[in-house]
Design brief:
homodimer; 550 residues; alpha/beta; 8-stranded mixed β-sheet; 16 helices
Amino acid sequence: MSTQPQLKILPLGGYGEVGRNMTALELDGAIMVIDCGLMFPESDMPGVDLVLPNYRYLIENQDRLVGYFITHGHEDHHGALPFVLPQAPAPVYATRLTRGLIEVKLKEHRQLGGAQLITIEPGERIQAGPFVVEPFRVAHSIPDAVGFAVETPLGLVIHTGEYKFDLTPVSGEPTDIHRLAEYGRRGVVALLSDSTNAERAGHTPSESLVRDALERVFERAEGRIILATFASNISRVQEVINVAELYDRKLGLVGRSMESNGEMALELGYLSAEAGTLLGLKELDRLPDDEVVICCTGSQGEPTSALTRMAEGTHPRVTLRPGDTVVLSATPIPGNEELVHRTLDNLFRQGVDVLYQALVPVHVSGHASREELKLMLRLTQPRYFVPAGGEYRMLVLHGRLAQEMGMTPDRILVVESGEVVQIDDQGARREGQVPGDYIFVDGSGVGDVGEAVLRERRRLSQSGFLLATVCLDPDDRAASQVALQTRGCVYLPEAEGLMEELRQAVLSLLQSSQAGRAGLEEQIVRRLGELVTERLRRRPLILAQVFSAD
Amino acid sequence: MSTQPQLKILPLGGYGEVGRNMTALELDGAIMVIDCGLMFPESDMPGVDLVLPNYRYLIENQDRLVGYFITHGHEDHHGALPFVLPQAPAPVYATRLTRGLIEVKLKEHRQLGGAQLITIEPGERIQAGPFVVEPFRVAHSIPDAVGFAVETPLGLVIHTGEYKFDLTPVSGEPTDIHRLAEYGRRGVVALLSDSTNAERAGHTPSESLVRDALERVFERAEGRIILATFASNISRVQEVINVAELYDRKLGLVGRSMESNGEMALELGYLSAEAGTLLGLKELDRLPDDEVVICCTGSQGEPTSALTRMAEGTHPRVTLRPGDTVVLSATPIPGNEELVHRTLDNLFRQGVDVLYQALVPVHVSGHASREELKLMLRLTQPRYFVPAGGEYRMLVLHGRLAQEMGMTPDRILVVESGEVVQIDDQGARREGQVPGDYIFVDGSGVGDVGEAVLRERRRLSQSGFLLATVCLDPDDRAASQVALQTRGCVYLPEAEGLMEELRQAVLSLLQSSQAGRAGLEEQIVRRLGELVTERLRRRPLILAQVFSAD
């Protein structure tokens, strides 16, 4: 067989969807994994708690795993580790802050014990099996983010992680343009680059834009300021601290993840505040309103989060009042619009002043827009390009952007999760398939709930169910007991007439039918279905069970 | 009692929500209704087909009803008529096109027979009870839209309907600025003005912007052009026809509502095309690709619509192919983002070129932005202002806009559906309440499904149900039959072990318990709940029923 080096790129998650980012590289039999993220369920996945990439390939090939390399501390890049690591163990490489956030998650799932975490730094060279991996600095909406340059006999493979070319980031360093230029000169065989903003023209504004907007908010606000953002957006929290200090306000962190992330980031030095700036809520309550800032969770309208409960007037420790200014320093993740709008409406109902993206530029994206994507392509001048991290249309648009820059279509590989890319000295091609579908987490179950159960849930959510139970008297069917149970279909107190009609229909079926138990069940389901459709034009899930003494 | 005139404004729907617009005015005991719309269900209303305003007040006071005045032909302004009219009949006043669209709807619901429809024109004065109503022209995203100026002894009440100050509309006339200025001079006691875009700064672009974008699309496209928009957006369809004719293309209308609305609008003269421009699909199939345009439904990703099925490759008559250009000439209504994005992704998977708002300005809003809202307030100089038609935050922002223009807060009345405004020579105030909540349509049921049933559906959608049936042997409980039925909770083929465990738990409960039938059911539900929580950390709806021979 050929001894030519062969490189495989396995897009395990995040290709054709936003979230659950996971890419594996395979070389000389060894496998390295870049990111291990989760996704939050979409609206057609009722009852699902989390969505993981399908990591069966990693379980089956765990003897060949040389390590997990995590680009940054967002859950869609590391949140699957507590599920994946126990079944496919390998060392986890991450920068300090990212490692801190991973530890918080692993501890939550009681999986910290067995994990081997290794702290890395940009510029370092890490040998992992046949791979030499160099993390490089990128600017994103969380500090200490990196991309990875992986040395292979075919050239460098560059995975950008998530980035923007913010030249004036508020905390942390800008994306390392010099290093990327150097990679480009050395020779990049494949670039995998973040596609999230491939629909967006121009250049994503710098985080410093938010800084300016926040200063204007603080200047005007006469009462308390309550600001909600992602708990992981530590750069944003730092900015709020900085502006609070500038305007002589004290700040409290509210919400479970805001508090735990804040604590960890302070400990590691990724958040800094003057002594006395950060206070508990009790201490803040003693200050005049115009000296108070509360930084909290809930920017996505999550039902049990701090801001949502404040908006509903049910937060145990913070009661909003006229004079307060509430700032929503985030935009809704697609799918969350309704929840966010509901929270905004409820905030207005509390009589507070509400500022959000539609009114004031209090948020900027952490992802590169089209001109920046072009800059990345230009700097790294890759031989092959695989658009990463994005819904399918974003991958295609990112690919077309590369084409507009002169790359020929054969060098651009738009793949969805599970579609393997092979590269050797003959070229690159889509070849082979690994599992790329979803693994659902529901309660304590991982992977047991699939499309079949979701179909039942969707059906139940539309019209509920109707179940008929018959205790058959084999001698005198007219004397049989018939009971109906229904939920989610009709309002029972007002549907007694219909229920009685359905019961009678079952009874008369019993008397006229000669069928045995199984046949009877089928007949009952059919008859009830006809009647319910006729009376209600609804399609509940209908079940029948027949018992008999014999 | 006082013989002073008293005016009541009853916001029956659309105040604090988008859709189901309905406002009643009450004077000298007479009631006139402006708009009678429906709303599409939000994501927490599973299984609901349509959402109506609560029209109980109209039913109870039908002897005092003098008429329904409909501002324009969108369903959120007239779609509730087929439900409301039979129970609270009164003449329906509408302009020609609006009347045509109402007739289509009434016919669908077999309610056209009893309805009394009266065609009106801008500038006409209609006497209805004590009200003199004058429709005035407004520009919106559908032709033949009007607002209403209602003469009362206290001054004019102006309801804007939905409008923008488009000075170069593509079809129809611009909003009648002169008439509005005249009303302002005559004296407006109350202005009710559309708040949909109260979050948006500046001036909504003219529909002619879309015209320019479409021309560029047609110039570039080498194959077929498939364009999706709202079937009711007849102005947009007209534009597409115009551009098609300019570029020597023929056009087909695809999708049930696109075809029926198109037919009606052609008949009434609100759509016009040269002979031979509009063709059936069979005729289009015979033409070269670069002479074909298809104008279809599905711009919101609705699951069974034309565009969605084309994107999935399941449309019976249109199969997409590389070379086609698909244009999405609409933006997602909040809540529809996921569906629209899914359709876009599927279109890209078909290999076609896809153009949409993020890439090309192929859509503009039909609603006035903040500078236009200010113009309306300035022109009409109302004594009192009631922000209409919008989610709560939009109403508040619209109210604040009036305040910024110098209106004192006591003259601005932000109300939600159901909160009555009373105006007399003493002033205006919120006083009284009418039903303002939702009426759900589900199948053939109107109003029978309420919050209780929806709560069950939401619960079922999360974890399904588990139902235990016991046929009790009163002499030997160990010999009782126990059966479990479950859906939407676990994947049954893999949960046999758990099911058997649950069954055994019920059996051993039977043997240990001395409780009678009702007590037993309660104990079973509790025990199963504990076990399921422990094993799965899921919370299905749990039911138990016990039968016994005695």
